Automatic annotation (TrEMBL):
Pfam families: Hemerythrin. PANTHER family: BLL2471 PROTEIN-RELATED, DUF438 DOMAIN-CONTAINING PROTEIN. Coiled coil: none annotated. This is Hemerythrin-like domain-containing protein. InterPro entries: Hemerythrin-like. Residues 5-126 form the Hemerythrin-like domain. It comes from Noviherbaspirillum aridicola.
Length: 148
């Protein structure tokens, strides 16, 4: 992958696939399968957030200055996404199908809007601002992905 955008968009696609599998498991009351997929999804999502929060955002902020609006918003949204994921995990643990599926609608909406901002604004900005460093940044993000 030669761009930050393509590398991180691929991570979004992988997350979407695992989350859909968890939702399907809940909808079918296949609790063990749903829990496994949700756990896999949560681990992949956390790895993805780590790549952004530990590698990409600091690199961008080094060119824009601390307190850069878009990265601050993305960090806030990551916190909201994590909290909602915790709520869904609790609903799944309680085998509360309706609550889980209701929360998952909100989660999907939030995550899709978040991803659109990243894919449409933040990642292309990173590709432009960090063009000379993109290969090193992708290597650093891949190191996070393989370490976990």
């Amino acid at each position: 992958m030669n761009s930050i955008t393509s590398y991180l968009e691929n991570g979004h696609d992988e997350c979407d696939t695992l989350f859909a599998a968890a939702e399907t498991g809940v909808a079918r009351s296949q609790w063990a399968q749903a829990q496994t997929r949700l756990d896999e999804f949560a681990a992949l999502l956390e790895r993805h957030f780590g790549m952004e929060e530990d590698i990409l955002f600091p690199a961008l902020e080094s060119t824009t200055g601390p307190g850069f609006g878009p990265t601050m918003v993305m960090r806030q949204e990551h916190a909201q996404i994590r909290a909602l994921l915790d709520d869904m995990n609790a609903a799944l643990g309680a085998r509360d199908r309706e609550l889980f599926l209701g929360l998952s609608e909100t989660f999907n909406l939030l995550l899709q809007q978040h991803n659109m901002k990243e894919e449409g604004v933040l990642y292309p900005l990173a590709d432009r601002q960090l063009a000379g460093e993109s290969a090193q940044l992708i290597d650093a993000m891949q190191a996070i992905a393989t370490a976990q």
